Amino acid sequence: MTPSAPALLTDLYQLTMLQAYFDGGMTKTASFEFFVRRLPEQRNFLVAAGLEQVLDYLETLRFSDEELAWLAGCGRFHREFIDWLATLRFTGDVDAMPEGTVFFADEPILRVTAPLPQAQLVETRIINLLQFQTMVAAKAARCTLAAQGRLLVDFGLRRAHGAEAGLLSARASHLAGFDGTATVAAGMQWGIPLYGTMAHSFIQAHDDEAAAFEHFARSQPAANTMLIDTYDTESAARKLADLAARLAPDGIAIQAVRIDSGDLAEHARRVRAILDGEGLPRVRIFVSGNLDEYAVHDLVASGAPIDGFGVGTRMNTSADQPWLDCAYKLQEYDGQPRRKRSEGKATWPGRKQVYRHRDADGGLAGDLLTTVDDPADGEPLLVPVMRAGKRLAASPPLAAVRAQAAANLAALPPRMRQIAPAEAPPVTVSAALRELAETVDRRLQSTSPAVR
């Protein structure tokens, strides 16, 4: 479980609305849904991630004495409201797509049904958690597809946008197919395999590069990847032959080399030839240095003899698409479907379900977006995960979530597994949902005075 966020880690308008709801007695049941309005131009799909952290947050949500005292002193809220906040707990229901599920625009991946103030308050943190991990998981999934089975390691903590982002990006990338991470806390918290090499500073701290390699190999006999591009990449590769002979009597073998600069494909070819010529065919070649799915794709397509990739900054920050056009919107209140009609941001009303249809081989054939009371053929993607503020079951282990993501990626049509943009996703809006939208529009028109 990640550390719970303070209740005040939210937007001010959540609290000002809550006081107005409190004053007006507006506490009836509401349903909100989180969805992405449109896919980024660079994405053919997204991968649901972050649900475990959302459930952690909801189960532990409460205002601390310190927070309540601060609210009392800030001058914006009255005493009765603050006293009510002291007793606030999340008592609602959550339905969601399992983490690792591939999804598309307008498809809700999470629905919260709770008394209106509770469902409203949690908006900011839910968006914060789901958007980030979903965004990183989608980027990591594209790297996974591009790598075609080669080793992938998350290297991005140092340039992540804060500690929580670095930790959660390790989780999201592993969920989406990365083999491991360099982030040690992620290994402790979720059991993600840890990978690491050495920094250039380690080589530079020694007077002799070969001595640095030997020092490291004897210190880490079972996990030694040598960084060979500090001075001259090919020269360093040749030095490893002599070192391997000195280490062999002690049962120590060199596992891999890492190349972090220059023309990675060409260096990999030259280093592979040197290692093979020196009788070291089992030493693997691992590369890093501002990589993303596009670079990985090109390196694989070039035929370069690369066994693995360290991917960091561009994946952990989702550099080409560092945000999603996502929302958490009211869909129903007091038994009435609700709909936002803002220009360019209109929503489909009511509580919804997504049904996935598959072809004869189990591949994704299309999705149907419809209302929850319009059962359809196919696999319903939103499932109950929380009732009355409590999980229905323990969150699945990350290995199971990873398997879910792998199965979803394997089921994508070939055109959608490509790095290049594909045609529009196969999503159909049901007649029942369209009819509900028309009904809500008519109700709004009948209850709103004409504009003069």
Shape: elongated
| Second rung of CATH, namely the architecture of the largest domain | Alpha-Beta Barrel
Q: What's the CATH topology name of the largest domain? A: nicotinate phosphoribosyltransferase
The share of residues in extended strands comes to 15-25%
In DSSP terms (H or I, runs of 4 or more residues), the helix count works out at 17
Tell me the name of the CATH homologous superfamily of the largest domain.
Answer: nicotinate phosphoribosyltransferase
Number of strands: 19
What is the overall pLDDT average? 95
Q: Outline the biggest β-sheet.
A: 7 strands, antiparallel
Rg from alpha-carbon coordinates: 26 Å
List the helices and strands and how they pair.
Layout: H1 12-24, E1 29-36, E2 46-47, H2 51-60, H3 65-74, H4 79-86, E3 93-96, E4 102-103, E5 110-115, H5 116-121, H6 123-147, E6 151-154, H7 163-175, E7 180-181, H8 184-190, H9 200-204, H10 209-219, E8 225-227, H11 233-247, E9 256-259, H12 264-277, E10 284-288, H13 293-301, E11 308-311, H14 313-316, E12 326-333, E13 336-337, E14 352-358, E15 364-371, E16 379-380, E17 383-387, E18 390-391, H15 398-411, H16 414-417, E19 427-429, H17 431-447
Parallel strand pairs: 6-7, 6-11, 8-9, 9-10, 10-11, 15-19
Antiparallel strand pairs: 1-5, 1-12, 2-4, 3-5, 3-17, 12-13, 14-15, 14-16, 17-18
Helix pairs in contact: 2-6, 3-4, 6-7, 6-13, 10-11, 11-12
Protein name: Nicotinate phosphoribosyltransferase
Domain Nicotinate phosphoribosyltransferase N-terminal: 8-130
Domain Nicotinate/nicotinamide phosphoribosyltransferase: 152-331
